[in-house]
Amino acid sequence: MTRQWIRLGILWLAVGIPCLWWERAALRRLWEYFTWSGLRILLFGYRNWTGAGILMCLGLTLSTLISASIVELFGLMPWEISWLEKRVQRIRQAGSRHPLWRLIHDPGEQEQR
After folding, report:
1. Is residue 60 within 8 Å of 11, Cβ to Cβ?
2. In contact, 44 and 17? CB cutoff 8 Å
3. Three-class SS of 46-77
4. Are residues 14 and 65 both part of a single domain?
5. What is the pTM of this model?
6. Phi, psi angles (nearest 5°) of residue 50
7. Within this chain, do residues 34 and 50 fall inside the same structural domain, yes or no?
8. Residues 65, 95 share a domain
9. d(CA 31, CA 69)
C-alpha cells in the first residue's frame, strides 16, 4: 500500500501540479464564481491534456483512498492472504539468497533447530 501512495505522490508532482499551474487562471475564476459549466470547461474545454491530467490524478487518488479504506475496514481478502502466504513460502524455499529473506526470517527460529 505504501508503494501505491508513493506512486500517487510522484504522479501528482509530475502531472497534477503542472496541469493545475497551467490552468491557474481558470481555477481562480472558478474559485470566485463556481458553476458546474465552468468546471466542465476547465476539465474538458480548451486544453484537453490538462483536463486529462487533472482527472487522472483525481481518479487515481480516489481509487487509492477507496482501496485503503476497504483494507482498513474489512482487512485483506482471502485470495490476497493466500497469495501472500505463497510468496512467503517461495522466499523461504529460496533461502538467504532471496533479497527479501531478511524481512521474513526469524533469527530465533534457526537457533531452535
Report:
1. yes
2. no
3. CCHHHHHHHHHHHHHHHHHHHHHHHHHHHCCC
4. yes
5. 0.69
6. -70, -40
7. yes
8. no
9. 29
